Amino acid sequence: MTEDAAQQRLGYEQARDQLAELVKRLEAGGLTLEQSLELWERGERLAVICEEWLEGARARLAAAIGAQRPAGQGSEADDEAARPF
């Protein structure tokens, strides 16, 4: 399994924790430019994984909230958007 494939299977908390560790290592300094770039690139991949998890959670939450609303009722944001100026 490649590193990218393994990272894609990470849970949100695992990816977030690894990203936090990377940030600490980068902030501590003492790395070569090449090492810093490798960590930065890995951090970018981890950030994407975290964002995908968060987007999925937002979508699931929106679906759950939408399923609980009676037909014809939108959110307050929908109501505000429909109001004339």
Structure description:
Helix 2 runs antiparallel to helix 3. The protein has one domain: Helix Hairpins. 78% of the residues lie in helices and 0% in strands. It starts with a helix and ends with a helix. The model has no long low-confidence stretch (mean pLDDT 85). The chain has 85 residues and is mainly alpha-helical. The chain contains 4 helices and no strands. The radius of gyration is 20 Å and the shape is elongated.
Report the C-alpha radius of gyration, rounded: 20 Å
Helix content estimate: over 70%
Sum up the overall morphology in one term: elongated
Number of helices: 4
The helix/strand series, from N terminus to C terminus, equals HHHH
Overall tally of structural domains: 1
Q: Kindly report how far apart the N and C termini lie.
A: 56 Å
CATH architecture heading: Orthogonal Bundle
Largest sheet: none
Residue ranges: pLDDT <50 for 5 or more in a row? none
Mean pLDDT: 85
Q: What is the CATH class name?
A: Mainly Alpha
CATH topology name, in short, is Helix Hairpins
